[in-house]
Amino acid sequence: MIARTDAGTGSPDSSGPGRLTWKLALPSAEVPGIPSDWPMERLRDWAWGGATGAGVRVCILDSGIEPDHPLVGPLDGAYAAVPAQDAGAGYGVLPEPPHDRFGHGTACAGIIRSLAPQCSLTSVRVLGGKTGSGDALLAGLRWAISEGFDVVNLSLSTTKPRYTPQLRELADEAFFRGTVLVASAHNMPVESFPWRFSSVISVGSHTVPDPELIYYNPYPPVEFFAQGQDVQVAWSGHGTKKVSGNSFATPRIAGLCTLVLSKHRNLRPFQIKNILFLAARNVGYRDE
């Protein structure tokens, strides 16, 4: 089973014993030897300044997306990973009427749309609510890569080791084909995937209320931190909800990747990751 998504979970101080998250603890993220006051405005302006996400196709693997939500807008497709009709044939991805069985996918879609309002959004439902099957995750991810999406948001993970080899193969395939996978770190200190793979962009959350503020983690496997604590997001029922968790930092990074690609269409995933690194608040860009 896919590990529970982290909707609504809190910081280490508020979530109880044993429920530590990959939330950033400032100022420990400072990179040794690199001043934290280097100017980043020029780099960010080059990378995504003035971009809207136009021309970039984004796929969200999650609990579905509520159609016509005022904070999400139109979808360019809605699909679901479902068991094949033939017994033993695994899972396939089929069109379905857009809906969200939980609210989590709608939240991720709204965050991406807030940063990249003109991007193309497609939903692939791999969760039946808060959880889903690893087979559905594999099928949905395989389909998204084969369809050539530019960015795939994965605010979920699996703790089942048997899925790791296939997930790794898919992550590498995406990397070499030019699809950017942005994956949420687990909220708990457990082994889960695909966020731990170096071929994806892994994300934890910070508390600063700035949707474009990034921190780089000099001590991976989590690579980047983005806004994801106590944020107001779109939710099912055409409403909103205040939530915390790495799930909601992940679409911030996915949204920034979308903006970068809308300005620089030929960049590869490793170049996108390097841009995020240079744009991080605790790394910066020196104009010399």
Describe the structure.
- There is one protein chain.
- This protein is of the alpha/beta class and 288 residues long.
- The chain is 26% helix and 19% strand.
- The protein is built from 6 helices and 11 strands.
- The protein has helices at residues 41-48, 104-115, 134-146, 164-177, 246-263, 269-279; strands spanning 57-62, 77-83, 91-95, 120-125, 151-154, 180-184, 201-206, 215-216, 224-227, 231-235, 239-243.
- It has a 9-stranded mixed β-sheet, sandwiched between helices. Strands 10-11 form a two-stranded antiparallel sheet.
- Helix 4 links the parallel strand 5 and strand 6 (180-184).
- The longest helix has 18 residues, at 246-263.
- The radius of gyration is 18 Å and the shape is globular.
- The chain starts with 40 loop residues before the first helix and ends in a 9-residue tail after the last helix.
Give me the number of helical elements. Answer: 6
How is the largest sheet built, in terms of strand order? 3-2-4-1-5-6-7-9-8
Low-confidence stretches: 1-20, 27-36
Strand content: 15-25%
- Main β-sheet description: 9 strands, mixed
Tell how many strands the DSSP assignment holds: 11
- Judging from the principal axes of the Cα atoms, what is the shape? globular
Instruction: Give me the strand/helix succession.
Output: HEEEHEHEHEEEEEEHH
Supply Rg: 18 Å
Which percent range fits the helix content? 25-40%
Q: Give the class from helix and strand content and strand pairing.
A: alpha/beta
Average pLDDT: 87
Distance between the termini: 50 Å
